[in-house]
Write a structure and sequence with these properties.
The complex is a heterotrimer of chains A (about 290), B (about 350) and C (about 260). By secondary structure, chain B is mostly helical. Chain B has 15 helices and 4 strands. Chain B has one domain. Chain B starts with a helix and ends in a 12-residue tail after the last helix. Classes of the chains: A mainly alpha (about 290), B mainly alpha (about 350), C alpha/beta (about 260). The structure holds adenosine-5'-triphosphate and magnesium ion. Chain C: This is ABC transporter ATP-binding protein.
Chain lengths: ~290, ~350, ~260
């Protein structure tokens, strides 16, 4: 029993982390076709925000809660700056955004390396999260439940914004038909910026959660970015449910394969599985169909 | 007259580069610098292939490290076995487990012929399978780029995690001889440089022929309007596949030569970061141009080994900025400046307007 | 519907249907396209004309059957259909803008060459390409990048590409739309010339052009074939007048 429960729960928690990271990516990739390779470093920015907040606020119990909104704003602001300085020049060249943001990611990573201790920093888990839950005999760290709840909250908030607010309608209109949205008076520039803010901000939130689980050093972003992208790709663009399922499947299957083999082999297997999956469904799980030759 | 001249210019350029690498460089450079130059030549071979796939084919390959590794590890295993002599077992394996026999897949690499065959065959097989799967299903653009990068990450992780078979993160090293030639002898090292530079020139000649052939035109057509090509009766997947496989072989050969030159092969020479580093020179030099990738890669290679030794951090900033600035301001790389200049010149001569503006933006 | 006799080299479409996520863009279309006559496909916007051609050229999946030269086209990949001799142009002209007129044609001529010959550079101009340049009247512009051509010239280039790839059946989607009166007249001439021994199907909205050049007209409406026959027959057809032309003023057949 234990051998099934542990990877299932751990994997679900990892999947939840991936989901928060991938949601932001799916938003910017889906809406603008922008491939932001610096998204991983935005995760790192979130994790570091968690660390810095902890240094400033004496109570670790409180600091984590404070860090979440602050990280959202910090990473979001980074996103807006990135959009305004780099990405806006190449909306018609999506592949180039990929390369340019690779460069940005390198710079950010080096900045972190130069500013923070190179061996990384540790974020202390607050007391109220430092417990275990007994699930069928498996001592499940409460932190993991926290990440799952956090992912649920992010998802709920995002879905609500997309569905019920006029801004959400503008985003969806822009995704479906940019030109038409423009003629209907939607300021797509503004929508792009806000989308970038939200998408990047989500990375910040994910970063705080990651800092509770993994060491926060300059390689944190690199570890997550490719998996997060695979989740987005496998989930398909245009619908959140694909991303959710893909994140969960990737998280859980990685956990199981890690259990059966080793961490590195597991990662390889999961990558290969995603590639095979894309053979079957090149557009991912769910897609909004469009017409056209190109 | 002018067209004649124009069509022989690239060959003259290749000849000039050959002269510079094969005659001038050995004459003026110290052993150490020549060895460094040999290393840049290996990276440049990878870059030439990236120019073919990305510049002409529009496929941004972010995982050439995979093919670099295929060649490099094939060569590394062979040289490792050669260094320990007949029936010997590499030191790292003995350290790991003194009693373990040589893994079965190592055994054939005792043979030099087999090794050389694998350096070519392995990338062909892997790239064909991968490319066939990816291109037939019409996976392209960013999806393709991400998938290739994921593969580089996966392979690097796999190698790091299988210390027993591959040496893990420390990699393969401690080579003493290269196909019977001892590596201690500076003369032999010069020979290795000559082989490498010749292979690089060979790669250039291959892409030169591909670019001027009908295949080259078809590749550009596929890059710019893939679906349209289908309606001319070609399967664009096959067109892309050929470019992808050729690039893979070039990366593999580059990787193979890298091993005797660098004296070590480890995952960090082929992981995601290394794969991106391979692209840097291509972007800088000009992805769609014949000479852009080579010259760019040589320049970036030089920058890497000079700057990164003294100020490693600064080099990363430079490289990062290079990506940002070049993609924003100069997507055609430095070569596009040259073509633009040449276009203006030709325009003055022939009275036509240059039409290269969008050539590299795809 | 006139009882046209079946030509042995005709492209036969039987009970063709196409649906997009439940929406039937084409339902149960029967039609045949025979060589030697200019066959026009007309119908209001959204009638399914382009979708019909898409289905016949492998761009969308259809059910039913479409045979040409003894081959079932449905289910074949687009490039296989082209190799079977069925070519098309697109509603918005799509040529390779970076390549010259000559290169565009040369690439189109390539499907009959053995694959390894692709590795060689082009030497001289193949006769088929030279002839096509002549036929479409772009000989003078052969070294121009296709991107700088005028709209009409691009359409001609596309027809030229079909010629060199030796398409026996050509679907031309709104080829003369956006052309000047002179260009239209020239295009009409061109189609007559090349249509003698080929099957040419033209999708068109301009009734003048249809009247001047059509041998056979098929009218589509809401995914079905509404009527088929000569121009006179179509103009006399009440169903056509009602759903297609009758929406505007009566007698707008001449508009
Ligand atoms: N890929 C698609 N997905 C969904 N609906 C489609 C798709 N392609 C076509 N349709 C629908 O099928 C119907 C037929 O379209 P089609 O383009 O074939 O019409 P058409 O006769 O060519 O019109 P036009 O004269 O405007 O070119 C239209 O209602 C169109 O909206
Ligand atoms: Mg149409």
């Amino acid at each position: 029993m234990d051998s099934l429960i542990a990877p299932l729960l751990n994997g679900t928690a990892d999947g939840a982390l991936l989901l928060i990271a991938a949601l932001g990516l799916a938003l910017t990739f889906g809406q603008m076709g922008v491939i932001n390779m610096a998204h991983g470093e935005f995760l790192l920015a979130g994790a570091l925000t968690g660390y810095v907040t902890q240094q400033m606020v004496a109570s670790t119990n409180l600091s984590i809660l404070l860090a979440l909104p602050i990280a959202f704003v910090v990473a979001g602001a980074l996103g807006v700056v990135l959009e305004a300085t780099v990405i806006r020049w190449m909306y018609d060249r999506p592949l180039d955004t990929l390369l340019a943001t690779v460069g940005v990611a390198m710079i950010l990573r080096q900045l972190v390396l130069d500013t923070f201790p190179s061996q990384g920093v540790g974020v202390v888990t607050p007391d109220w999260l430092d417990h275990q839950l007994d699930v069928f005999g498996y001592e499940w760290p409460l932190r993991q439940l926290f990440t799952i709840l956090l992912a649920g909250a992010c998802l709920g908030a995002l879905a609500a914004v997309l569905k019920f607010t006029s801004f959400g309608r503008q985003i969806r209109a822009t995704v479906q038909n940019r030109a038409l949205a423009e003629t209907l008076g939607v300021s797509t520039r503004m929508v792009d910026r806000v989308t970038f803010f939200v998408g990047s901000g989500l990375a910040g939130v994910a970063g705080v959660a990651i800092s509770l689980i993994a060491a926060t050093d300059s390689t944190l972003g690199t570890k997550y970015i490719v998996s997060a992208f695979l989740v987005v790709v496998a989930g398909g663009l245009g619908q959140l449910k694909g991303t959710i399922i893909a994140a969960w499947v990737v998280g859980v299957s990685t956990a199981f394969f890690t259990d059966w083999t080793t961490g590195s082999i597991a990662q390889v297997i999961v990558f290969v599985l995603v590639v095979i999956f894309l053979q079957v469904r090149p557009q991912g799980l769910f897609t909004v169909r469009t017409r056209g030759l190109a | 007259m002018i067209t004649r001249l124009k069509s022989s210019l690239p060959l003259l350029g290749i000849a000039a580069l050959a002269l510079a690498l094969l005659v001038v460089a050995p004459a003026v450079l110290s052993d150490l610098r020549l060895n460094n130059l040999a290393k840049y030549c290996c990276w440049a071979m990878v870059a030439v292939g990236i120019g073919l796939t990305w510049g002409r084919g529009g496929m941004l390959v972010m995982g050439q490290g995979v093919f670099f590794a295929l060649g490099a590890y094939a060569m590394g295993m062979h040289m490792q076995l050669e260094s320990v002599g007949d029936g010997g077992i590499p030191t790292f394996m003995i350290l790991y487990d003194p009693l373990a026999p040589l893994p079965a897949f190592w055994e054939p690499f005792r043979s030099g012929v087999f090794t050389i065959a694998m350096i070519v065959v392995a990338p062909v097989v892997v790239a064909s399978i991968l490319g066939f799967a990816i291109f037939k299903r019409r996976v392209k653009g960013a999806y393709f780029a991400i998938l290739t990068q994921a593969l580089a990450v996966a392979l690097a992780t796999l190698i790091s995690g299988t210390i027993k078979y591959t040496g893990g993160d420390t990699g393969l090293s401690g080579f003493t001889s290269f196909f019977g030639y001892t590596l201690d002898d500076p003369l032999n090292r010069r020979l290795i440089f000559t082989i490498t530079a010749t292979l690089l020139i060979g790669c250039l000649v291959v892409v030169w022929q591909l670019y001027r052939s009908r295949f080259g035109e078809l590749l550009v057509a596929t890059r710019d309007a893939e679906e349209r090509v289908r309606f001319l009766g070609y399967d664009p997947a096959n067109v892309k596949l050929v470019a992808f496989v050729v690039a893979a072989v070039m990366a593999s050969i580059g990787g193979a030569m890298f091993v005797p030159i660098a004296g070590i092969m480890a995952p960090k020479s082929m992981d995601a970061a290394a794969s991106i580093f391979f692209i840097a020179g291509v972007a800088l030099g000009g992805r769609a141009a014949l000479f852009g990738p080579v010259l760019g890669a040589l320049a970036v290679g030089y920058g890497q080994s000079t700057l990164s030794e003294q100020w490693p951090g600064t080099w990363i900033y430079v490289l990062g900025l290079l990506f940002v600035v070049v993609t924003i301001a100069l997507p055609g790389g430095i070569a596009s400046l040259a073509t633009r200049g040449a276009g203006v010149m030709a325009g003055l001569l022939v009275g036509r307007r240059p039409s290269h503006r969008k050539a590299a933006s795809a | 519907m006139t009882g046209r006799h079946l030509h042995p080299d005709a492209l036969l479409v039987r009970d063709l249907s196409v649906s997009f996520d439940g929406f039937k863009a084409i339902s149960g279309v029967d039609v045949s396209f025979a060589p030697g006559e200019l066959h026009f496909l007309i119908g209001p916007n959204g009638a399914g004309k382009t979708t019909l051609v898409d289905a016949l050229t492998g761009l969308v999946r259809g059910t039913g059957s479409a045979t040409y030269g003894g081959k079932e086209l449905l289910g074949l990949r687009s490039h296989k259909i082209v190799r079977a001799g069925v070519g098309r142009t697109f509603q918005t002209a799509t040529v390779f803008e970076q390549l010259t007129v000559l290169q565009n044609l040369d690439i189109a001529a390539g499907l009959h060459r053995p694959a390894w010959r692709l590795a060689l550079a082009r030497r001289g101009v193949p006769t088929a390409v030279e002839e096509a340049l002549e036929t479409i009247g772009l000989s003078e512009l052969r070294h121009r990048p296709a991107g700088v051509l005028a709209h009409g010239q691009k359409q001609w280039l596309e027809i030229g590409m079909l010629l060199v790839q030796d398409a026996r059946v050509m679907f031309l989607d709104e080829t003369v739309a956006g052309m000047s009166a002179d260009e239209r007249a020239e295009t009409g001439e061109l189609l007559r010339r090349i249509g003698r021994d080929r099957t040419i199907v033209v999708i068109e909205h301009d009734m003048d052009f249809v009247r001047n050049h059509a041998d056979v007209v098929t009218v589509m409406h809401a995914g079905r074939v509404l009527a088929e026959g000569s121009v006179a027959e179509i103009q006399a057809n009440e169903a056509v007048q009602e759903v297609y032309l009758g929406r505007t003023v009566k007698g707008s057949v001449d508009a």
